[in-house]
Amino acid sequence: MSTQSNISRRMSQSAVIQAIASFGPVSRASVAKITGLSKQTVSEIVGNLENEGWVREVGQTEGHIGRRAVVYEIAPSAASIASVDLGGTKVRVALCDLTGRVLAERVEPTEPTGGMDVVAQIARLVQAAASDAVGGVEKLHTAVVGVPGVPDPASGAILLAPNIAGIDQIDLAGALRDMLGVEVFVENDVNLAALGEHWLGSRGEGEDLVFISVGTGIGAGIVMGGQLLRGHSGAAGEIGFLPFGADPFEPESLSTGALERVAATEAIVGQYRALKGRELDVPGVFDAAADGDQAAIETLDAVARQIARAIAAMVAIVDPSVVVIGGSIGARTELLDRVRGCVAQCYPRPVTVEKSTLGDHAALAGGASIALSHLHISLFAEGQSGARIAVPPPAIADFKAGAS
């Protein structure tokens, strides 16, 4: 078969799969109309996909005069993908089918020794989750790992991730690929959370979104025109290093970041201690503020102002349609309400600021969307340059129920 014929076949197959994934259950005739391909071409492709187990019959059309047509959908159990959220305190793994539905989930405290021990832990959890699902490990095709740092494309090391020891000294994707025997992709966890909110959070396909996570640290993921903005070195959204809050020229700001020093966990604990003269953890500070403790109230007010400054800076640069705030601290309503008020005071136009709809499963959802896209392109576009197959998300309630 000529190169041109191969390209044409891959393009046709990609179009058919996209139509079935987006509109299924759907008949061959409808697929032909959607794709513009001939009925004969569609019949041949669908027949091959059905024989190989990638699509399945799910009934017949109804309500039409004359002969009813068989309708098809993606076969959910034909393959599975793993989405991994690697944090400084927990590792969370979700195994999903071809529709994005969560089949199994495993969660453990992150291995404190870090490095290759964390890689082995991830591999073990992925294999355990896969074993819980129909088809087992043999069905596993692709894994995506969200990391609290910046993946270095040259070495595979994870930079700017001080909470996981030794992760900056290893090729994480390569090592995990060797252990699992499947394709592995690594992405910043906040970037994945942004994609997850965009994919599952009832956003329009082309909607621009900024996701800001506030927890142990502070970071942002930027989705423009439906696509993740990574930047030249993959560090787009590292807003903890915005040069305000603390003095950006102090040596400490080169490791933690001037904004992060005044707007994340350590900042809340430290500011309250400085005002009150006693130690409380972050939940304790929120509880104290709710009880009317003036030092706690001032602490949360100060943090909200700094987060609002970051939002104003992001909005001034990329002008998103919505800013979504998540993370263990950012998702707290007490802080979110303060942030909204501060944004209105420091930016001249209305800014839509919403709470994360996915909570601690946002990064898992984003990882699933990337893994499914890679899987579909690999299988059905056969690596075709520039190919893109958008996988429709499952219902958010179904995803969260399956991942609970």
From TrEMBL:
One of its GO terms (molecular function) is DNA-binding transcription factor activity. Pfam families: MarR_2, ROK. It comes from the Bacteria. Residues 10-57 form the HTH marR-type domain. Belongs to the ROK (NagC/XylR) family. Gene3D superfamilies: 3.30.420.40, Winged helix-like DNA-binding domain superfamily/Winged helix DNA-binding domain. CDD domains: ASKHA_ATPase_ROK. This is N-acetylglucosamine repressor. The gene is nagC_3.
